[in-house]
Amino acid sequence: MPITAVHTDPEALTLTVIADFTVPLARLWDAYADPRQIERFWGPPGYPATFLRHDVAPGGRSQYRMTGPDGDAHGGYWEWTAVDAPHSFEVRDGFAGEDGTPNTELPSMRMVFSFVETALGSRVTTVTHFGSLAELEQLQQMGMEDGMRAAMAQIDDVVADLTSFAAGQGTELQRLGDTRARVSRIVRGSVEQVWQAHTDPALLRRWQLGPDGWSMPVCEVSTEVGARLRSEWQSDDSGERFGFAGEVVEAVRPTRFVTTERMISPQDPEGLESPQTLNELTLTPVEGGTLVAYVITYPDAEIREQILATGMVDGMESGFARLEAEVLAG
């Protein structure tokens, strides 16, 4: 059991939880920064969490939902107000509806997470600040303290897993609900380097080449919201051509890049007959490099499975390997 102390202060309107671990500080920090890891313990047993968004940066946002054994869902969000990696971060934590909209009928809380090295490993101290005594008592009655104890008891197993989330594990696919998928990989490079590699046409042409024997004659990229994007690949032998088009929805350098995407071809040059996806790219510094996470929203489950069956994830792994070897190496 990692929790070593819990203290409620009605005068300061705070709930403090201290937990100790026998792992290095960076390993514990990554458990909170990596959506693949935090969703393994943020919900209590029987109510696993799924993080649909997780921006570890000031001004960022996290969106999650916890699903019970009977299928009942409980949503939540974080608004990130401060980050000092790997020492601390601060969020506004609240309840949310199924679509992620904040539930204003329930109180939100300011939470400060502090990470320090100890003689045996590392410690995280979580201080929750409430707006009033009534809010503190309301959330205690809702089982907040017991829920935190049960949830944090699961962190030991997560941080003890030194291989599943380490650099070098390749590209991972996770299905999120019925219409989303998360594709993630740790890339050996800084966040700024990886951002540049995703937004500079000259760099994209060096690593995002598609199948062997194909070139990238068209690469139109921008980080201006509303700007159009277009990438086309061509077979060096047959001249066969395909590509993708879309536009920029959101860009926060160097951590978040959101675009739409639809497939184009000579027969459908604007992609009007193709389904459109929403691609949310998040870059997070972790031990070993940068966690690259794409959360892709498809029109429906059938289209998601059709696109995943094309070998998309294997193609992305080939691109990421080329990115490390030919763009970021040295």
From TrEMBL:
Q: InterPro entries given for it?
A: ASHA1/2-like_C (IPR013538), START-like_dom_sf (IPR023393)
Domain Activator of Hsp90 ATPase homologue 1/2-like C-terminal, chain residue ranges per copy: 23-159, 190-325
Instruction: Identify the Pfam families for this entry.
Output: AHSA1
In terms of domain of life, where is this protein from? Bacteria
Q: Where is the signal peptide?
A: none
- Recorded family membership: Belongs to the AHA1 family.
> Which named protein is this?
SRPBCC domain-containing protein
Supply the source organism for this entry.
Answer: Leucobacter rhizosphaerae
